[in-house]
Design a protein that fits this description.
- 69% of the residues lie in helices and 4% in strands.
- By secondary structure, the protein is mainly alpha-helical.
- It has one domain (2-157).
- The longest helix has 41 residues, at 33-73.
- The radius of gyration is 24 Å and the shape is elongated.
- It starts with a strand and ends with a helix.
Length: 160
């Protein structure tokens, strides 16, 4: 038996000593466990990649739905939500989806606003002025943002 990682032990006969010998690893990977691990992962990839991809897609769908619901409930501001949804849209490969490009635009137009943790580094007086601008900005985009959030929930809710 060969230990590849602290939690993974490989029975050489399960993988096939021939595979190891073909790549110059003798004793079924005992001399080079990192390479043995790579070969093992590569041999298991076809079985696991579809499952992992599906699980990851479902995970991202849940995050999209949660962000959209948080915007609708007012728990998350439109700008903060746009920043989250931009990244999630990219992760699901929906960069060109008009629902996500709307939020990319909102993020781009609002990148000068102090949102989130960065606020702790701002002068309180300057924050009050920016908060007025933020409120006006979000009010302008609210109706369209809510409409798109509802569409995102419809699109990604069944995958969550």
């Amino acid at each position: 038996m060969t230990t590849i990682t602290p939690n993974l032990t490989v029975e050489p006969t399960a993988i096939g000593a021939d595979v190891f010998r073909q790549v110059g690893i003798h004793d079924a990977g005992r001399r080079c466990p990192a390479v043995a691990g790579f070969i093992l992962q590569a041999s298991l990839a076809p079985m696991n990649s579809q499952t992992c991809n599906e699980e990851h897609r479902q995970f991202l769908s849940r995050k999209i739905v949660a962000a959209a619901q948080s915007i609708l409930s007012g728990e998350l501001g439109i700008i903060a939500g746009a920043r989250q949804l931009c990244g999630l849209g990219h992760e699901v490969g929906a960069d060109r989806d008009t629902d996500f490009t709307f939020f990319v635009g909102v993020d781009s137009e609002s990148d000068h606003f102090p949102i989130g943790e960065v606020r702790q580094h701002w002068n309180p007086e300057a924050l009050r002025a920016k908060d007025t601008e933020i409120a006006s900005f979000e009010a302008f985009y609210r109706e369209k943002a809510f409409e798109i959030c509802r569409r995102l929930i419809e699109k990604y809710g069944h995958n969550a």
